[in-house]
Amino acid sequence: MEATRFSVLDRSRTREGHDGAQALRDTVALARELETLGYHRVWVSEHHGVPGIAGSAPTVLAAAVAAATRRIRVGTGGVMLPNHRPLVAAEQFGVLESLFPGRIDMGLGRSVGFTDGVRRALGRDKEDAEDFAAQLDELLGWFRGTSPTGVHARPAEGLRVPPFVLALGEGADVAARAGLPMVIGDLRNRDRMRRGVDRYRETFRPSPWAREPYVVVSGTVAVAATEEAARRVLVPEAWSMAYSRTHGTFPPLPPAERVEALVMSAREREFYESGLTGHIAGTEDQVADALRTLVEETGAQEVLVTTSTYDRAALLDSYRRLARVAGLTATHRGDLARTP
User: Fold this and answer.
1) Does a structural domain hold residue 108?
2) 208 lies in which domain range?
3) Does 132 or 91 have the greater pLDDT score?
4) Is residue 273 part of a domain?
5) Eight-class DSSP state of 128
6) What digits encode the pLDDT tens for the residues 200-218?
7) Does residue 136 contact residue 159 with C-beta atoms inside 8 Å?
8) CB-based contact 217:184 (threshold 8 Å)
9) Sequence-ordered list of residues with C-beta below 8 angstroms from that of 311, at least 6 positions apart, any chain
10) 284-298 vs 312-326: helix crossing angle, rounded to 10
11) pLDDT tier at 125, thresholds 50, 70, 90
12) Residue 319 φ then ψ, to 5°
């Protein structure tokens, strides 16, 4: 795995007893640690109206992360383009690239708000996601200076901010046609993920942004001294997902010990146990083997880790152990600014 890059997407998950402001500060602090460990990039996400997630303005948070770090690449995973006018998105990334040249990534997704209420608040509906390919082309056009309106995106025009497409649904096809790097997260369904990767490579069209296909696979990775300790890293997020599916709201992350003491309904237990599966978790040797298999199966150039848990010390320990597994400190520290 020496040639494989490792990066992190942090969603600024709130934790019981801590507010959203603390979650955002935690993201910035984590980014500093990830930089010292040799990770290639750190991304932040866009979620609206979700009680358990503070990351709602990714370009704003990316600016804070970039200002607090020196070398690591910083970006979004992603800006949900149907929620924004492409001109405004281009301007925001243009400002970021101007302030932090050579370090900014533009991860772009096609999702709209999760609920009808959020979509109404955003002034969007589900059909807006169907225009993603056109929105993406318009956004890239603002950087190329090819808009037919006579308007120029300042300071974006002429800048090179690497774009990535989050491959949800038809995203792999959009990425291939546009000639852009693709991020695909489907560790729980490896066959479907491999099919998406194969289709992307088969139909990829070289572009000024990428001459060859570039695949980033994303998912949860937990590393600890024992299998049980790694499993406990997964517990808070698994319970939050189970709770959201049975109660209709996504809560802050609880401590693992409180979750393990709960008396769950049969339906809650089913979702909870399912949420503990399909991830890469275990000791350093076990995770190394699992990651090696994943990279061999997909041919991925990069792994984007998306782990969330209540215990920040356990999370940081997991990232430290993963850095050892991947040999980041020894092989990647001098390679942080190279793109994509």
Assistant:
1) yes
2) 5-220+284-335
3) 91
4) no
5) G
6) 999 999 999 999 999 999 9
7) no
8) yes
9) 233, 236, 255, 256
10) 60
11) low
12) -70, -35
Query: Which residues sit opposite 218 in a β-bridge?
Result: 304
pLDDT recorded at residue 147: 77
Distances (CA, A) of 172 to 7, 118, 168, 214, 340: 20, 26, 7, 11, 17
Mean pLDDT of 146-157: 85
Under a CB-based contact definition with an 8 Å cutoff, are residues 42 and 7 in contact?
Answer: yes
The two tokens of residue 196 are 């998406």
SS3 280: strand
* CATH for 207: 3.20.20.30
**Distance in angstroms (rounded) separating the CA atoms of residues 9 and 183:** 11
Q: Are 178 and 147 in contact (CB under 8 A)?
A: no
Considering the domain boundaries, does residue 39 fall inside one?
yes
Instruction: Report how far residue 91's alpha carbon sits from residue 71's, in angstroms, rounded to the nearest whole number.
Output: 23
How many other C-beta atoms are found inside a 10 Å radius of the C-beta of residue 288?
Answer: 19
User: What is the C-alpha separation between 297 and 86, in angstroms, rounded?
Assistant: 35
Q: Could you give phi then psi for residue 297, rounded to 5 degrees?
A: -70, -35
- Spell out the alpha helix ranges (H) of the chain: 20-37, 58-68, 86-99, 116-122, 132-144, 171-178, 190-203, 227-247, 256-260, 266-275, 284-298, 312-326, 328-331
pLDDT tens track for 4-33: 999 999 999 999 999 999 999 999 999 999
Which whole-number Å values give the CA distances from 155 to 70, 135, 139, 195, in the listed order?
22, 19, 13, 39
Q: Is 150 within the bounds of a domain?
A: yes
Joined tokens for residue 324: 């050892």
Domain count across the chain: 1
CA distance 233 to 291: 18
Beta strands in 143-225 (DSSP E): 163-166, 182-184, 215-219, 221-223
Cβ proximity of 279 and 235 under 8 Å:
no
pTM over 0.90: yes
| Amino acid symbol at 198 | D
Three-state SS for 40?
coil
What separation, in Å, do the N-terminal and C-terminal C-alpha atoms of the chain show?
18
